[in-house]
């Protein structure tokens, strides 16, 4: 029974004692009021719905673009049966197709090569990507929630990637799923062969920053011209870790995470909260164009409160008050994320 496995929830409203574990000093009263108003049965229902929610990401990119380092830097990589899944690193023959990696019980990565190997292999890769995009989940919805195409920012030739987007990916996305395409430009620190990268502050210097902005704009314009889609490519660096030694730190990962969340179905975003990599160093360095952490917080919080509203429709006004006050969002998100983690503990 739920109450036996979660004795903390056997309180009036089902939340009071559990919330104290995750309530920071000065925490958001509105959020606590919302959660404290939930009954034990409502909490159980939220838990079951979040835990049963699956996120499927189709990860596309050629060898060496940093698919594995990107995924492992963003998310806790538990791997199936406790084994770490080396996304994009395997040399097994089946990786010529699409390989499935279950990072945890909620998040599955479908790893596909890009194009450009040979006409014969490109045809086969294209066919399998199209098949993946047409798969349905148990509810009849598209199985793939996000198509994440990773390019090498140090490359000068994205011709095969443009072909893949225009001829394979875009025509096979549903009209209401066209915003599920995310373009990442990894290895931003190597975009000018390692030059103009401030290693002390772990960020691009002005000349490299101009190059990266021009590159992102060029990719954006080319995709718009060939498909009509408005995408915003994100340049970043996933960092480098070899045999447990960190050789370089990530850059712009909080921005990348915020865009990953933005491109996922809103209802599924709260599920990510439990699986974000806990190494704070991964998210330390970002450009200063926006408050990306607030974007992450708002995305997760609004998704979670959406789940809450589904099981308790009468708290709609309280939720609206939380999401319309930017000063409350960070504290509210901290409470909500802590709550999600406790709620989902086995």
Could you explain how this protein is built, in words?
- Helices cover 42% and strands 12% of the residues.
- It is built from 13 helices and 10 strands.
- α3 runs antiparallel to α12, α9 packs parallel to α11 (292-311) and α11 crosses α13 (326-343).
- The two termini are 12 Å apart.
Number of helices: 13
Query: Number of DSSP strands?
Result: 10
- End-to-end Cα distance, whole Å, is 12 Å
Uncertain parts: 1-27, 90-95
- How would you name the oligomeric state of the polypeptide chains in this document? single chain
What fraction strand? 5-15%
**Apparent shape:** globular
Helix content: 40-55%
**Helix and strand pattern:** HHHHEHEEHEHEEEHEEEHHHHH
Please tell me how large the radius of gyration is.
21 Å
Mean pLDDT: 82
Class from secondary-structure proportions: alpha/beta
Reported for the largest beta sheet, the result is: 6 strands, mixed
Adjacency order of strands in the biggest sheet: 2-3-1-4-5-8
Key traits:
42% helix, six-stranded mixed sheet, 10 strands, single chain, 346 residues, alpha/beta, two-stranded antiparallel sheet
Task: Outline the secondary-structure elements.
Blueprint: H1 2-5, H2 16-20, H3 29-36, H4 40-51, E1 55-60, H5 67-74, E2 99-102, E3 107-112, H6 119-133, E4 146-152, H7 159-169, E5 181-186, E6 197-198, E7 203-204, H8 206-227, E8 234-235, E9 240-242, E10 245-248, H9 253-263, H10 269-272, H11 292-311, H12 316-323, H13 326-343
Parallel strand pairs: 1-3, 1-4, 4-5, 5-8
Antiparallel strand pairs: 2-3, 6-7, 9-10
């Amino acid at each position: 029974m739920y109450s036996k496995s979660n004795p903390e929830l056997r309180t009036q409203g089902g939340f009071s004692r559990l919330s104290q574990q995750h309530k920071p000093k000065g925490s958001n009263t509105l959020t606590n009021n919302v959660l404290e108003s939930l009954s034990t049965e409502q909490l159980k229902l939220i838990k079951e719905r979040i835990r049963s929610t699956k996120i499927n990401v189709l990860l596309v990119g050629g060898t060496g673009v940093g698919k594995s380092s990107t995924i492992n830097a963003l998310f806790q990589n538990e791997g199936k049966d406790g084994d770490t899944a080396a996304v994009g690193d395997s040399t097994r023959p089946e990786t010529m197709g699409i390989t499935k990696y279950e990072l945890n019980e909620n998040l599955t990565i479908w790893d596909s090569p890009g194009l450009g190997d040979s006409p014969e292999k490109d045809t086969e890769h294209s066919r399998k990507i199209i098949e993946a995009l047409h798969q349905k989940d148990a509810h009849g919805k598209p199985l793939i929630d996000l198509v994440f195409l990773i390019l090498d920012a140090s490359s000068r030739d994205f011709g095969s990637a443009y072909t893949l987007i225009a001829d394979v990916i875009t025509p096979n996305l549903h009209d209401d799923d066209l915003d599920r395409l995310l373009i990442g430009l990894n290895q931003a620190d190597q975009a000018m062969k390692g030059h103009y990268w401030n290693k002390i502050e772990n960020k691009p210097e002005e000349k490299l920053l101009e190059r990266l902005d021009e590159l992102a704009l060029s990719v954006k314009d080319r995709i718009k011209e060939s498909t009509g889609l408005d995408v915003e490519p994100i340049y970043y660096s996933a960092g480098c870790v070899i045999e447990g030694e960190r050789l370089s730190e990530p850059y712009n990962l909080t921005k990348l995470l915020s865009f990953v969340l933005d491109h996922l179905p809103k209802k599924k975003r709260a599920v990510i909260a439990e699986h974000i990599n806990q190494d704070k160093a991964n998210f330390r360095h970002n450009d200063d164009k926006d408050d990306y952490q607030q974007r992450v917080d708002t995305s997760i919080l609004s998704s979670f409160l959406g789940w809450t509203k589904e099981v308790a429709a009468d708290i709609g006004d309280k939720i609206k008050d939380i999401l319309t006050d930017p000063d409350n969002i960070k504290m509210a998100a901290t409470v909500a994320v802590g709550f999600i983690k406790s709620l989902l503990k086995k």
